[in-house]
Design goal:
The chain is mainly β. It has a single domain, classed as Immunoglobulin-like (Sandwich). The protein is built from one helix and eleven strands. The strands form two sheets. The protein has a six-stranded antiparallel sheet, with no helix packed on it. A five-stranded mixed sheet has the order 1-6-5-4-9, with no helix packed on it. The termini are far apart.
């Protein structure tokens, strides 16, 4: 069987006043194939497990990309709170929205499936993840609104 190496994922990173966001194309994965790690020393690591390996009965004529074994390591320019990070995956793109913090808060994040090839990990209510928010998250937001109204 063919040996598959990690593919370096291209990313786009941008900063807003209170948030650092990274987007990375990771086509062909399911949410359960993706892991995001934020380390205590300010490093972001994105993993995507291998999917769809060709069976031995096929002759591969051209193979310029595979579905998976994605990996990317980045040094973050700001301290972020990994525990409060939102992660979404849809249309083959992973988006990680990390709240800027005084110190790095490490976290290992996985996604919950919200639809076919769609997933999310909701870290905080400061910026709702929509329209694919889970029922549990929507209930938590409704509870917060009820408490504020009291």
């Amino acid at each position: 069987m063919e040996q598959i190496e990690n593919q370096r994922v291209p990313v786009r990173m941008w900063r807003q006043m209170d948030r650092l966001t990274v987007a990375a194309p990771m086509p062909g994965l399911e949410p359960e194939d993706i892991t995001v790690e934020i380390s205590a020393d300010g490093r972001l690591t994105i993993y995507g497990d291998l999917r769809g390996v060709f069976k031995d009965d096929k002759e591969v004529l051209l193979n310029e990309w595979t579905i998976g074994h994605y990996r990317r390591d980045l040094d973050l320019p700001n301290s972020v709170d990994g525990t409060m990070t939102n992660v979404t995956y849809g249309n083959g793109v992973l988006v990680i929205a990390m709240p800027v913090s005084d110190t790095h808060q490490p976290a290992r994040l996985t996604l919950e499936t919200t639809g076919q090839a769609r997933g999310q990990r909701v870290g905080h209510a400061g910026s709702d993840v929509m329209p694919h928010s889970t029922e549990e998250h929507q209930d938590a937001i409704a509870d917060q609104h009820r408490q504020v109204g009291q």
